[in-house]
């Protein structure tokens, strides 16, 4: 009965820790989620920044699994270079180790204060403050769980059964590693297992070598949940999570025979013996990052060979059902859904192009021609579908909607042409010649790229909803784009006059890309014209007004 109570108390303490972790993740996501995602996507242009972004994101979310899945989704969309994605996950592993070290650093005395402040923010505050309050409550519960776990494992110090079990594991380190990995996988948290091992270390019933082996197992098991979560994902995402598992598995295989030596070495340092698990956890992940970092490209290439691209399926229209041409409302809804898919293809092309621009890499451009061809075919299919619908006769409202759909499809097709024949050609020329934008020029183009993608997403919403206020905002953004393009062109000319070498070498490329991005935005904004015209919000041009005055 006593042993059953001890097990229940331990499981309850672990459950409290996992609940605290979930609260931190939920709170941070609510308060800073968008900024975290944007920061992670935009902070992977170099190895050090990638490592740091993975570390910071994991400490904030209290979950290397969440960071791994986020990074895998970015890699799938082409926002993160595969090599940089592997380095991000090395940083995420360090972030988990830092979190465990901080939790074990005797900070549990702050648990009541964190809980109090968290509840106050949760009850009285904005959405961001409530998110922060939830995160503070989660941290408080994590620290509190450490105290509960310490009390729960107190009776275990005198348990002959546990001592015998640990003695068996001490004679079979491979079994111990797999056992710890299984626990980490089942709990979906390597941190929870590290804290549990920390309790064993404080009780003094496990040998230092065994403790290091259990920590290795926790690291290995913590890499499995992201792999399981991406089993049905596209190859780009699967390569990232499986590459991370491969790196950890190789690291554990190399470290396992040296666990005893590593434990003795750590004990010679001026560190607390009771904190051996978190010290070993941090040391392992730091060494793994240092050793694996130079092999990021090799790992990425290996995973590409092991998980090849799926054969591209020739996809025709998905929603243009000819049987529904007798019902104009349904047919127009079908065409709208199909054109939204065309817009998604354009967004994908823009993201691929921006990725090539950010990382100075031709690889993301390989898919552009294929996507542009698909855009051409789909917009032709939409026009043919709606022309057949028009032959059956439409009332004025449906006729206007049909024309608006065709116009948007044509504008999307023009955007695809500009991306393929304009932006991609300019970037290919720059990359092949080894040219480099000035820092200011790069920042100006990067801002315009980001704004263009955001504008396209807004246009997709306007196209579906017909929201007048959103359409008006899109028209106002057109002015912002014009100003941004003009300001960048003027700044570029100033850099030319100042004799900046990078600006002189990339002058035509810079100005051509500005022009192409401006043209794409002009096509994007066109979706707002029929909506504002119908509402009477579209004013006549200055030229027309001048003609009237004369």
Keywords:
550 residues; mainly alpha; 24 helices; disordered C terminus
Main sheet record: none
The end-to-end span amounts to 100 Å
Encode the helix/strand succession as letters.
HHHHHHHHHHHHHHHHHHHHHHHH
Helix content: over 70%
Q: How many individual helices? A: 24
Class based on secondary structure composition and strand pairing: mainly alpha
β content, as a range? under 5%
Low-confidence stretches: 541-550
Q: Using only CA atoms, what is the Rg?
A: 29 Å
Count of distinct strands:
0
Spatial shape: elongated
Question: Layout of SSEs?
Answer:
Elements: H1 2-42, H2 47-61, H3 64-76, H4 82-103, H5 111-123, H6 127-152, H7 160-170, H8 173-187, H9 190-203, H10 208-222, H11 224-229, H12 235-255, H13 259-268, H14 276-292, H15 296-306, H16 328-359, H17 368-391, H18 396-432, H19 439-465, H20 468-497, H21 501-505, H22 507-525, H23 529-535, H24 542-549
Helix pairs in contact: 1-2, 1-6, 2-3, 2-4, 3-4, 3-12, 4-9, 4-12, 4-14, 4-15, 5-6, 8-9, 8-10, 9-10, 9-14, 10-12, 10-13, 10-14, 12-15, 16-17, 16-18, 16-19, 17-18, 18-22, 19-20, 19-22, 20-22, 20-23
Short structural description:
The protein is mainly alpha-helical and 550 residues long.
Task: Note down, in words, how this protein is organized.
- By secondary structure, the chain is an all-alpha fold.
- The protein is built from 24 helices and no strands.
- The protein has helices spanning 2-42, 47-61, 64-76, 82-103, 111-123, 127-152, 160-170, 173-187, 190-203, 208-222, 224-229, 235-255, 259-268, 276-292, 296-306, 328-359, 368-391, 396-432, 439-465, 468-497, 501-505, 507-525, 529-535, 542-549.
- The protein starts with a helix and ends with a helix.
- The relative contact order is 0.07.
């Amino acid at each position: 009965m006593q042993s059953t109570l001890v097990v229940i108390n331990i499981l309850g303490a672990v459950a409290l820790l996992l609940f605290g972790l979930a609260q931190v993740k939920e709170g941070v996501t609510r308060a800073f989620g968008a900024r975290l995602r944007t920061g992670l996507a935009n902070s992977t242009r170099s190895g050090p920044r990638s490592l740091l972004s993975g570390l910071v994101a994991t400490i904030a979310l209290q979950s290397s699994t969440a960071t791994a899945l986020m990074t895998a989704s970015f890699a799938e969309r082409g926002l993160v270079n595969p090599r940089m994605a592997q380095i991000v996950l090395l940083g995420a592993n360090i972030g988990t180790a830092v979190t465990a070290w901080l939790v074990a650093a005797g900070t549990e005395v702050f648990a009541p204060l964190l809980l109090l402040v968290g509840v106050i923010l949760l009850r009285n505050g904005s959405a961001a403050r409530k998110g922060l309050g939830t995160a503070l409550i989660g941290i408080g519960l994590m620290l509190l769980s450490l105290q509960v776990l310490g009390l729960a494992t107190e009776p275990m110090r005198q348990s002959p059964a546990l001592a015998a079990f640990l003695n068996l594991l001490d004679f079979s380190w491979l079994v111990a590693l797999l056992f710890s990995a299984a626990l980490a996988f089942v709990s979906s948290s390597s941190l929870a297992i590290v804290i549990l091992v920390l309790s064993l270390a404080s009780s003094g019933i496990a040998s230092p070598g065994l403790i290091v082996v259990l920590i290795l197992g926790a690291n290995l098991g913590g890499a499995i949940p992201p792999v399981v979560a991406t089993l049905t994902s596209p190859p780009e995402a699967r390569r990232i999570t499986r590459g991370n598992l491969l790196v950890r598995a190789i690291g554990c295989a190399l470290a396992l025979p040296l666990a005893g030596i590593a434990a003795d070495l750590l004990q010679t340092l001026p560190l607390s013996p009771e904190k051996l698990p978190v010290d070993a956890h941090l040391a392992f992940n730091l060494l793994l990052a240092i050793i694996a970092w130079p092999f990021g490209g090799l790992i990425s290439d290996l995973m590409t060979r092991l998980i090849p691209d799926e054969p591209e399926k020739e996809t025709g229209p998905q929603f243009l059902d000819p049987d529904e041409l007798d019902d104009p409302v349904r047919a127009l809804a079908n065409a709208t859904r199909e054109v939204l898919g065309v817009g998604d293809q354009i967004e994908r092309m823009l993201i691929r192009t921006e990725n090539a621009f950010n990382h100075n890499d031709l690889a993301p451009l390989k898919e552009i021609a294929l996507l542009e061809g698909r855009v051409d075919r789909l917009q032709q299919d939409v026009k043919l579908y709606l022309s057949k619908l028009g032959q059956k006769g439409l009332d004025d409202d449906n006729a206007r909607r049909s024309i608006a759909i065709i116009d948007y499809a044509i504008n999307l097709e023009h955007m695809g042409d500009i991306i393929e024949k304009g932006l991609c050609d300019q970037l290919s020329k720059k990359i092949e010649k080894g040219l480099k934008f000035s820092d200011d020029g790069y920042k100006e183009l990067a801002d315009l790229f980001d704004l263009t993608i955001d504008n396209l997403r807004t246009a997709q919403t306007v196209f579906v909803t017909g929201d007048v206020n959103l359409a008006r905002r899109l028209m106002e953004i057109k002015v912002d784009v014009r100003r941004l393009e003009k300001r960048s062109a003027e700044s570029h000319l100033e850099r030319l006059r100042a004799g900046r070498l990078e600006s002189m070498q990339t002058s035509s490329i810079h100005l051509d890309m500005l022009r192409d991005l401006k043209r794409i935005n002009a096509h994007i904004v066109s979706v707002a014209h029929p909506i504002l015209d119908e509402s009477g919000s579209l004013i006549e041009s200055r030229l027309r007004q001048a003609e009237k005055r004369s």
